[in-house]
Amino acid sequence: MRKIKFLLSIFMFFIVVTTVAQNKDTKEEAAYYFDQKDYKKAYELYDKLYSQVPKNFEYKFRLGYSSLFYPEKKARAIEIFEDIKRTDKSPDVDYYLAKSYHVNYRFDDAIVSYEAFIAAKNEKATTEDLPFIDDSKLGIENCKNGKELIAKKIIADIKNIGGPINTDEIEGVPVISADESVMIFTYVGKKSTGGLLNDFLKPDTDEGTFHEDIFISTRSSDSSWNAPVGINSLNTNGNDAAVALSPDGQTLFSFVSDVKNPGDLYFSSLSGMDWTKPEKLNSNINSEFWEGSCSITSDGRYLFFASERPGGLGGRDLYLSEKVNGDWGPAVNLGPSINTQYNEDAPFIHPDGITLFFSSEGHKSIGGYDIMYSIKKENSWIEPLSMGIPLNTTEDDRYYVINAKGDVGYFSSNRGGTGGKGQQDIYMVTPGILGEKPILALLKGSVFVNDKPSEAKIEVIKKGDNTVIGPYYANSKSGKYLMAISPGSGYIVKITVEGMDVIEEEIDVEKLQKFVEIKKDFYLYTPGFESKKNQISVKTILDSLLNTGTNAETFKNDANVSNVVNSNLKETDPVTTTPAATLAPCNGGVTPDFSQVKGKSLNDAAVYKKFMEIGGKMCADGLVFKIQIAAYKHPENYKYGHLKQFGAPEIVNYPDGITRFTQLSFSTLNEAEKARQKIIGKGQKDAWITAFIDGKRFTLEELILVNFVGKAIN
Hints:
Blueprint: H1 2-35, H2 39-52, H3 57-68, H4 74-87, H5 91-103, H6 107-122, H7 130-151, E1 157-160, E2 170-176, E3 182-188, E4 213-218, E5 229-230, E6 239-245, E7 251-257, E8 264-271, E9 274-275, E10 279-280, E11 291-296, E12 302-307, E13 317-324, E14 327-328, E15 332-333, E16 344-349, E17 355-360, E18 370-377, E19 380-381, E20 385-386, E21 398-402, E22 409-413, E23 425-430, E24 441-449, E25 452-453, E26 456-462, E27 468-474, E28 480-485, E29 490-496, E30 503-508, E31 516-519, E32 522-524, H8 538-546, E33 555-557, H9 605-615, E34 623-632, E35 650-653, E36 659-666, H10 669-681, E37 688-693, E38 696-698, H11 700-703
Parallel strand pairs: 24-31, 24-32
Antiparallel strand pairs: 1-23, 2-3, 3-4, 4-5, 6-7, 7-8, 8-9, 8-10, 11-12, 12-13, 13-14, 13-15, 16-17, 17-18, 18-19, 18-20, 21-22, 22-23, 24-25, 24-28, 26-27, 26-29, 29-30, 30-33, 34-36, 34-37, 35-36, 37-38
């Protein structure tokens, strides 16, 4: 029996020794992650230690503190600090208990604890206490803001965008082109360049960390995001983070840091399909202090950026620089209407040029950074407004961007309970902006030379004062361009291709009343190009079709320029049609006048009704209207049995890779609309009308281009 007891005591001794040794290793690891502010891992390790040694105050406190900054576990912070408060009456506990209530939206309880801490410390505050007292005063203001915003909670739909962009690792700081066709973001994880690296950027699988890389994803034809890939020309072993993308998607701004460089702002240009090597912005932007976020206006003229340079109103302030003689001029602080005594960061200027989003610890923040926005009116910024709850949380909310239309926004967050896939994910929110939506025209398309995509310089000249906006550039590989134009004036769009005659066309958006997206391609031809003789512009077809002159149309072609507006045919194919003379009006010579719906969207039911009243009887020889019931990249996914009573659909696989299904054929819009309503009644809710001129497909937009700016119903 004694031998058994002796062996048992030895066994227990080894267990204790082993446990102590293991706890020592775990304690060191937990302290490491705690110091690195990786509170998720710190929480997991201190939770393990505390469960084994529940009387250890250090484990308990650090577990509670880690809970404060781990959104999935922040509710536990209340439990831990309330338990500590039962035995420890120190005012310091009131501070952490207040923080626990605060991040969990118990604003009234938080205010009571903040005030108790301030009252206790004010009697004999030390120098070390002052930052905590100031933070408590800010916390009280945050909680008051929170109570106010909860009372008028915003209705918004926030969704994790999911795979393939979000993974179980870190994805953040999304930047998008104005039309949402491209998203570039910052990634940290197993795919990071160089793998696990130490502070000197050398491989270290034991204590090394992954560094930031820049990844890109594009939209597929069904609007889903394609699998992202790293941009090799931008990624190094150091930290490379995407921070801004010009609205046309041609210029990328990044934050770059390595062993020799603590961090500055750089820019890269898209040359064809490749990004150029990053170049450092000049000393008016980069200083010896932190600069880590920025945004550029759609015309490329102004750069908004955040900096910690001295002379500001707070720690981080927002600044503005204007491009002068091709480079960035002196930085100007945006002043007290935007900046506060606290930090401001992550600016994003909308393509309309007057709506500025940014993140602030001041203004109406409910805690940490919150997303605000301000609108420029009469050359000054209005008082910033909070984007409200639930977009803003008691955690940090930054890096907010929205599309040109203003209906969808994107941001990154580590918030808990919203479908997160990893430590930090990218989310989307609708609506993207509160209140009035942006009013502008998003002009997009491609430039072709001899039917091949071409690089081009595009300038927009404001009529009246001849202000030049831009230049913009068509991509050298795809020929694609994208630009935003504000209403209130007429403009001249100038297309310049080296060695070619300049194209100039007018666009009239003076009376624009809402956001519109206009598709326009430009075609240029060298003398003697064999296809030139077959070119007939859509403008010529429309002028004949609608029996009207050029003065009323949105785009006005130079009479000496041969070009084509055509968004539906294969981009490398010329437009070949029966001569326009065959498209004579068949409605008794009455010319439709679309001025009443000019600048308005056909997606508006009232506008569409008015359009039908005006043009419902419009017809022409060679023109037919068909009902398009579906358009699929994978046509096998579409079943049309519910529409068989209308006859077998015409199924055509177009050069753009989309297979389109149409049914029936009519000579007027009125007849087509009656059939469309019947098809909708059979369950095909997204049926719409499309037109064909001598077999060539056109959108309704092209048929009303003479008097109408806007996105067609289809």
